[in-house]
Amino acid sequence: MDNAWNDGEADLVDETKFTTTGKAGWSAWNGWSPEEEFCDFAASFIRLHRPAHVIETGSGQGYTTRRIIEAMPKGGRVTLFETDRDMADVIRDHVPDWCAVHLDHPAPAHYRTADLTILDSLGKLRRRELNAWWKFSKPGAYLLTHDADDQRHQGSTNHAQLAQLIRRNRIPGVFLPNPRGGFLGQKAG
């Protein structure tokens, strides 16, 4: 895995190199990063919605994170969660002071104050985080999650399990067409 925080972003390649069930024309930096289009969508949604507080889990290489920070409105805050201690330390060295970096998962209080939660942590952790968001988030809060798809990703894959959990919880929203899948939802008010 590259270290895009220290070394800069890698060259993009066609996503079919990483997701063989996907169609050509989508871009990714590597097999661990989200598609470029997903990252850009997250930033565009922030510019449109103008949330005061954004949570992101699985900040990792920071492809989405850097775009979130750039898109945030003045006075907004970002709370990042990364479970890899070394990576969390690298992230702390590269984000503005108004971004908090935690080595763990969001607590209920984080979900209660977030206007937008972006989930991209490891598979089973993300399912736990999605359940916590659904239980603790405030009415009107948005959820954007990566790797949620049970149409192109079948069986016991993390992608399919996350999509099935979204369906079981009946979270209102839309599944996204990116090759690895995604979901944009909102908790009813």
Description of the structure:
The chain is globular and about 40 Å long. It has helices at 4-7, 36-49, 63-71, 85-94, 108-113, 123-136, 158-169, and strands at residues 13-14, 27-28, 53-57, 77-81, 99-102, 116-119, 142-146, 173-176, 182-186. The protein has a single domain (34-186), classed as Rossmann fold, CATH 3.40.50. The protein has 189 residues and is an alpha/beta fold. A hairpin with a 5-residue loop joins strand 8 and strand 9 (182-186). Helix 2 runs parallel beside helix 3 and helix 6 packs parallel to helix 7. It has a seven-stranded mixed β-sheet, sandwiched between helices. The protein has a two-stranded antiparallel sheet with strand order 1-2.
Offer a quick outline of the entry.
By secondary structure, this protein is of the alpha/beta class.
Largest sheet: 7 strands, mixed
| Domain unit count | 1
Helix proportion of residues, in percent?
25-40%
Task: Note the beta-strand portion.
Answer: 15-25%
Derived from helix and strand composition plus strand pairing, the structural class reads alpha/beta
Q: What is the C-alpha radius of gyration, as a whole number of Å?
A: 15 Å
**Which blocks of ≥5 consecutive residues have pLDDT under 50?**
none
Q: What is the CATH topology descriptor? A: Rossmann fold
Q: H/E element string?
A: HEEHEHEHEHEHEHEE
Overall CATH class: Alpha Beta
Distance between the termini: 40 Å
- Name the CATH superfamily classification: Vaccinia Virus protein VP39
